[in-house]
């Protein structure tokens, strides 16, 4: 290449960098993230600009505006379908089953997310991936009307092919089958697999697909939700995707540990509403009809609140809820998360709770599929330990569950990690369980996992080698962008 080509390219890069920095300054986001991006753009020519176009906020904001407009088109129809929940199944503030702390959280979540707490639900907690997949498959096999699935990862392996075979069979039996997949999470799914699904009658759509020719190659705003709704009667959700590793069939990861929920009752209507919104955004098809929203019936006694969060909500629902959960705890907090990269607000909430003599325990994996995230999380250990927080690392397989148990009285289970992506960038699905029995079950599971985990001490953290200290510091520097 001649020298003048590189000169012209450099000039073009710096002009683009200046314009991008102006955009960053105008958006006024988190100062640490802004500074990290500005330094990346300046210190890494060309590559920094490409990274910002892929995972920065400029294209993301356009997609957020587009999603809001799409949602407004079906909002009225969905409200008519779900209005019955507020009339007959809403848990009111004076409900004797909820104490004041639970009502405070309920009111906060209702105001932020716009969802009511429903009573009369039956909630089952599932930990074993193989059994959870079997239960899901049996429920789909028994479907009479429709099956709606939404997953971040749908692998082209034995588990994924088995699920596809089942979906094709149900479609050929006259059951409507819709499968919504995230374009980034499912980038490895072969065209042949997709053609077989579509040829078999399964309606397949991708959430924010990559279309470089139309400048659609945004890696942010991913749909990280995991959900299946069968006949509008039963729902499956949690942290499990569809793939061999999620049922413990990959030796590379070892035993895979997730926490999933099987739910029946009025809350299923809310899950259907979430699927309908995401499906409409991806396909423009309106599912707000009686066929997909049967009259909700009581199935148990559990109180559940469903919170769908995402970057299209400027209030950052999930971040505010987690902050409130930690801040309001009076006795204990038990958190399991595979990806731990807290921001300054969450660090303050966690350490403040520990200083208030709340027993705070974190259960994190000792190995993940992202070394950068693993080391970024470890960079916070010293501050957390100094405040009296107990940290454990699980080393008996892949820990992929995302749960929080507060005061052993109520709990959160869902798809969200404790990191910036789940707080502000990804579309997530969280279930708040206002039930002491369910919380006690999750507490017992936490205790069983902690027994086989290694407790992290300050001595261990301070004795890191020089190389480990550099790795931790470098990962901490990148944490605002993770």
List key phrases describing it:
single chain; alpha/beta; Endonuclease, Chain A; 15-stranded mixed sheet; 17 strands; 46% helix
Question: What does this entry show, briefly?
Answer:
It contains 17 helices and 17 strands.
Describe the fold and architecture:
This protein is an alpha/beta fold. It has three domains: 3-56; 60-89 and 121-300, Endonuclease, Chain A (2-Layer Sandwich), CATH 3.30.870; 317-481, Endonuclease, Chain A (2-Layer Sandwich), CATH 3.30.870. 46% of the residues lie in helices and 18% in strands. The protein has helices at residues 3-27, 31-43, 47-55, 58-88, 100-113, 129-141, 158-172, 191-199, 267-283, 317-328, 344-355, 371-378, 381-386, 420-425, 436-451, 458-462, 466-478, and strands at residues 117-126, 146-151, 176-182, 203-207, 227-230, 234-238, 256-257, 260-264, 302-309, 332-336, 359-365, 390-394, 398-399, 403-406, 410-414, 428-433, 454-456. A 15-stranded mixed beta sheet has the order 4-3-2-5-6-8-1-9-16-15-14-10-11-12-17, sandwiched between helices. A two-stranded parallel sheet has the order 7-13. The two termini are 35 Å apart.
